[in-house]
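Usage

Read records sequentially. Each one opens with the input sequence:
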Amino acid sequence: MTTEALFRDDAYLKETEATVIAVGDAGIELDRTVFYPRGGGQPGDTGVLVRADGSELAIIDTRKGESLEAIVHVPAADAALPAIGERVTVRLDWARRYAHMRIHTCLHVLSCVVTAPVTGGNIAADKGRLDFDIDMSLLDADRITAGVNALIERAVDTETVWITDAELDAQPELVKTMSVQPPRGAGRVRLLRIEGIDLQPCGGTHVRNIGEIGRVKVLRIRSEGKRNKRVEIGFDDA
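and closes with the structure output:
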């Protein structure tokens, strides 16, 4: 089944009307959705499906389906499932998603301050982290915090651009992540551009302007192995 991924064109859509196209053990598939499926270190979205009678079906996770364009909405245990063909309103837990958008975009900025191959990453609602293949002695929390905030203060717009698989093959330097490769097979690859700061493949959701991230700080730096030095960064509530 194919789900139209509305978040790819507008990450700020909070809800949409949709039709149920499949129901199975894995969850519910819709013809369109604003829910981002877990991937690339970003958690799957949560929220509710509102049925015609006004009742709400809680969605506790969103995942990629078996086919390339399938998105599965995972319902709460023992939930009364909708029927195929049923119309529902798909409503995001927007506060959680927007926090993910701010953190995810922040990690792109972080990767421009710590210039080393990225070996892993993860996103939560209050913090995120990147793992780098770099010597521990080159990582200083105060310097990284200052560098990331200086870029955020420039308040540069973000932009989604697309290139072909062949164009990406000709520019391998665009891929910073060693652990996760951009999805291929559809003939084109989605990039996030922060003009003058960053350009790299990414399928996640991001803020329109990096100024929306707000002030951040490095929470801790630690070694996770010979080629993995972890930098954890979060919102600065001070």
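Summary fields computed downstream for this record:
- The mean pLDDT is 92.
- The first strand starts at residue 4 and ends at 5.
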